[in-house]
Specification:
Helix content: 25-40%
CATH class: Alpha Beta
Shape: globular
Mean pLDDT: 93
CATH topology: Rossmann fold
Strand order of the largest sheet: 5-6-7
CATH superfamily: HAD superfamily/HAD-like
Structural class: alpha/beta
Number of strands: 9
Strand content: 5-15%
Distance between the termini: 27 Å
Length: 206
């Protein structure tokens, strides 16, 4: 969701900067590590003594719920989703459900019939469980799924799950080098439902 269908980087980095300064964490080196992962996993990776990762993650979530300034869709995402059959797509996010819905509302992203959030998994990305759960809920084999990702931990999760993968690059501050096919945003793309029942992503007709 974040960085793939919508951009919330500015809001997230405002909150995480406040948190990092409070805990004496170097902001410049820390901020690049927050994207794509659950807040609790990000905090645990730091190994800060005496820090309750779950309590701190709850603080992060509350702060992010209050700050959606600048949260907008990745260009063309809403129009792209509107063309997908409702039962053929889902959102898999490292955000808790309440935060995911708040940001989706701010960006105009519709809620899909199926969602998998941080609340649904024991271990977050790069663990592939989130994507395996999503495939089961869609009643589709994971090998028949196409995952859109933007962050390294998400890419690792998609690879581990065994799904096909495309990388969205529009929210990257620096060029991202990836072995996977990538696209900047959704403005030049549209889904096409073929006669054989497969959904394919094709260039948008001009």
């Amino acid at each position: 969701m974040d960085g793939t269908l919508l951009t919330s980087i500015a809001a997230a980095e405002r909150v995480w900067t406040t948190w990092a300064l409070r805990h004496g964490v170097n902001v410049e080196t820390f901020l690049p590590t927050i994207h794509g992962a659950r807040a609790v996993d990000t905090i645990r990776r730091l190994g800060l003594p005496g820090v309750d990762a779950e309590a701190e993650a709850a603080w992060i979530t509350e702060a992010e719920l209050l700050d959606v300034d600048g949260v907008v869709e990745v260009a063309g995402a809403v129009a792209f989703l509107a063309q997908l059959p409702a039962d053929r797509w889902t959102i898999v996010t490292s955000a808790p459900l309440d935060l995911a819905l708040r940001r989706m509302q701010a960006a105009g992203i519709p809620r899909p019939q199926v969602m998998v959030t941080a609340d649904d998994v024991k271990d977050g990305k790069p663990n592939p469980d989130c994507y395996l759960i999503a495939a089961r809920r869609l009643n589709v084999a994971i090998g028949d799924c196409l995952i859109f990702e933007d962050a390294s931990v998400g890419i690792q999760a998609a690879q581990a799950a065994g799904a096909d993968l495309r990388v969205v690059t529009s929210t990257h501050a620096h060029p991202m080098h990836t072995e996977h096919p990538s696209f900047f945003d959704y403005q030049g793309l549209q889904p096409a439902l073929e006669a054989d029942g497969w959904l394919r992503i094709v260039p948008r007709a001009q």
